[in-house]
Amino acid sequence: xxxxxxxxxxxxxxxxxxxxxxxxxxxxxxxxxxxxxxxxxxxxxxxxxxxxxxxxxxxxxxxxxxxxxxxxxxxxxxxxxxxxxxxxxxxxxxxxxxxxxxxxxxxxxxxxxxxxxxxxxxxxxxxxxxxxxxxxxxxxxxxxxxxxxxxxxxxxxxxxxxxxxxxxxxxxxxxxxxxxxxxxxxxxxxxxxxxxxxxxxxxxxxxxxxxxxxxxxxxxxxxxxxxxxxxxxxxxxxxxxxxxxxxxxxxxxxxxxxxxxxxxxxxxxxxxxxxxxxxxxxxxxxxxxxxxxxxxxxxxxxxxxxxxxxxxxxxxxxxxxxxxxxxxxxxxxxxxxxxxxxxxxxxxxxxxxxxxxxxxxxxxxxxxxxxxxxxxxxxxxxxxxxxxxxxxxxxxxxxxxxxxxxxxxxxxxxxxxxx
Length: 419
Hints:
Blueprint: E1 22-24, E2 35-37, E3 44-50, E4 54-66, E5 69-77, E6 83-89, E7 93-105, E8 110-114, E9 122-128, E10 133-139, H1 141-152, H2 163-176, H3 191-195, H4 199-214, H5 218-235, H6 240-254, E11 278-288, E12 299-306, E13 310-311, E14 324-326, E15 333-341, E16 348-355, E17 363-372, E18 383-391, E19 413-418
Parallel strand pairs: 3-10
Antiparallel strand pairs: 1-2, 3-6, 4-5, 4-7, 7-8, 7-9, 11-17, 11-19, 12-16, 12-18, 13-17, 14-17, 15-16
């Protein structure tokens, strides 16, 4: 089973950057000092990149949106490498960006132009709850996909953008792809630019090359994104065929004469194996069996046997809050957790042990983030709870018993999982 990373960020909307630092003044003649906190940001500046291939010219329009009404505020020029800067001042609310211009299609090495009134623009939508300082932002086919999903969630006629739908759509697309599609800025797909890029930027940049391979013209791109958007609306995810085609197209680009990235296979690209996997949130709930209503457990240990289409991040420092988030009192801690493979079924097994010296609470205990393969919809038996043990009741705690150990006669608690 290939390891997958988890999205530890909550929502992919642009949040308030609340950085508060204490500045110590120098000691004067009296030897006293005082701390002065920096004020919160009073304005927002977007520092962005437009990318389909690398844009060489064009412009970005900024719209403030209320419901289905878009009001054009300003237009800024796209500079070298697709970069742009936008001063939004103290504005709060929905901001919609539309990009037009000329770029180089990496897959064909041809020049392509997105023309207003002829071609669909590339868009990004974000919600500002307060002035937020300097914010990185991308405008790409994947942010365009998020805009389409946000509009598809609307029940209004005509469709309207709302804060809730913007947050949900940006989060969904950023979950399917292993980076924040709004705040991660792609770079030029050459070895020099990629050498200083983050893993997220590398994956983003080369995925866009795969999209260019699949959709070398504005019309083909519009059709591709329409298909992706329809699958997000119908299934809440991209289909396995979508991911397979995108992976194949990216490999085709890497094998072409126009590839100057330094990568030759998709397996070399950081984060690329995670493309297409999305998060299924599993809620773990503890229930006392009626025969043991007075029993108290200081530790509960159990295992989640996962379908082969499911996994968690075995490279992370499990336990961590990105995988297992406790819902109970602060005294409850994750004392142990690991990911193993069942020797019989060869399925992944996530082992979890939770501890509270005052006793484990009854009710919703934790959430666990499970990564789910493209187009796979978990069913009732996709995640099974096995080997429940509780210290304080049993004479001995059996750490991570094998799955064929059926000693459940002394289990006085039950674990329910919903997803």
